[in-house]
């Protein structure tokens, strides 16, 4: 967006509607009690969303049909894609056009938000490649099918569905199977960890927005934030459950995400009540725009490369030719993906 277009956008209110914190402090009544209540409401929503998929993994009476878990993964992928593009990169693009952002930023380059997102995605590719190579090198000797593969929750069918297994030999259990961990356990682990980092950092800034907003704005934001954290929690929880981690690590990562938005809100409340920390102005807006751009690039790479790659494999596993209700299952997977993206895109109107 060129400088003149940014000016017109600000004049019509398009930029202000999307800013998080903004260049100046909020005006109007501010109740610390309301904001403290928001901390616990958001914490509860985040915990519930994240723990539902994990509870189904460990509590027999809550265990869902495997295909329902696949639908959850599809919806999670849609959520991540919408969060990346609408909640992060879009907000960053608007933030770089705020009035208090120095002209040196505005005039030197028109697409900083997309530049930082692209850099993050490229770095994610390099990091993932190195991590996969490291895991393959360290675990290859202990990864024959029936030992390492099954211990990590990876079966031959899953690996072959991912296109990662190299099978040679005959069909009478005499084949030599090389199962790179990049196609199974490592793939799912990296998806979960990268998603954890992106949504947690993003949630801190979202929580900070609630913490510095006046009472009228907080009431509207709180409703949107509850749904935002609930759906992000469901998306993250489904990935954690699929990553074959130890339960203690799953719970730790779930807790870290769950407290991220409340911590941001608490920082905002403390800054407003104590008036000792500036959470508005040039530095805040620029830093938030940069972090939103970087996190958006991370989640965009995660969604398109690491999460959507599961979709064809799940189709072959649950809706292959000749399987019962194949057409309905395929349709359900697409609808779940679209619904996840659509719901989070709608929430982007308020957050």
Largest sheet data: 2 strands, antiparallel
Provide the gyration radius in Å.
Answer: 22 Å
- Looking at how many chains there are and whether they match, the oligomeric state comes to single chain
Mean pLDDT across all amino acids:
79
Strand order of the largest sheet: 1-2
Strand content: under 5%
Number of strands: 2
Percent of residues in helices: over 70%
- Topology as H/E string? HHHHHHHEEHHHHHH
C-alpha geometry: globular
Ends apart, CA distance between termini: 21 Å
Taking pLDDT < 50 over at least 5 consecutive residues as the criterion, the unreliable ranges are 1-19, 142-182
Tally of DSSP helical segments: 13
- Would you tell me the structural class of the helices and strands? mainly alpha
How many structural domains are formed by the residues?
Answer: 1
InterPro entries: ZIP (IPR003689)
Organism: Trypanosoma conorhini
Keywords: Membrane, Transmembrane, Transmembrane helix
Main location: membrane
